[in-house]
Write a structure and sequence with these properties.
Structural class of chain B: alpha+beta
CATH topology of chain B: Heat Shock Protein 90
Distance between the termini of chain A: 28 Å
Number of helices of chain A: 3
Number of helices of chain B: 5
Oligomer: heterodimer
Shape of chain B: globular
Order of helices and strands of chain B: EHHEEHHEEH
Number of strands of chain B: 5
Largest sheet of chain A: 5 strands, mixed
Radius of gyration of chain A: 13 Å
Strand order of the largest sheet of chain B: 1-2-3-5-4
Number of strands of chain A: 5
Strand order of the largest sheet of chain A: 1-2-3-4-5
Strand content of chain A: 25-35%
Number of domains of chain A: 1
Amino acid sequence: MIQSEWDGDRLTVYLDGEIDHFASVHLREDIEAELKRRPASQLVLDFSDVRFMDSSGVGMIIGRYKTMKAHGGSVYAQGLHPPIDRLFHLAGLHRIIAIKSGGQETYE
Amino acid sequence: MNNQMELSFSAAAENEAFARMVISAFLVQINPTLSVVSEIRTAVSEAVTNSIVHAYSDDTGKVVMRAKLDENYVYIEIEDYGKGIEDVHQAMQPFFTTEPEQERTGMGFALMQSFMDEVHVSSAVGSGTLVCMKKRLNAQEDL
């Protein structure tokens, strides 16, 4: 089960723990189910409580980016700890996903 | 310090986290920085995931993880006895994957190479794959 919250048509998903291949398979199913239940124009992935991520997590994020992009939506990431931020850069995720550093910024 | 360990576990996705936990616990004795632990955990996770996702995609089997501390280096081996890799050179190219529909990125080997100093892969079709990785542990920097 994912922790998520809706604000208008923005879905924020609070990820936690370790996002590896095992976790990514479940996250993919849960997030897709939520997006099918109710369409979102913005998907915000919150990494504040994520302690570990590998390339399986990267694949899961790119998958959700494709889902959102297919109907003109966008994906944002926030709360990246240094190792996760480094992985985002190594994988080139920052080129397709806007990264929010604080809680005050707006989602454009 | 010289020390070594060997662990054998089922190629089950649940054991990806277990393998990371074990390598972290093994490294505690050298008092590594968080960043070194994070890099090694990621490299181990990528190699173990490859074995689970690709080597045993049609069946199940064992994955063996060996680690050795020798002076200023850590040596890690991840071995499986699965289907093997036909073309190792191709498999190691960034973004090459045989399973894009499973949201595999093809970044596993590239990340192992980014986070470790050396990565060697030997594989034989039908008998398995061995990934050997080496990383220098700079004791001075870790203080």
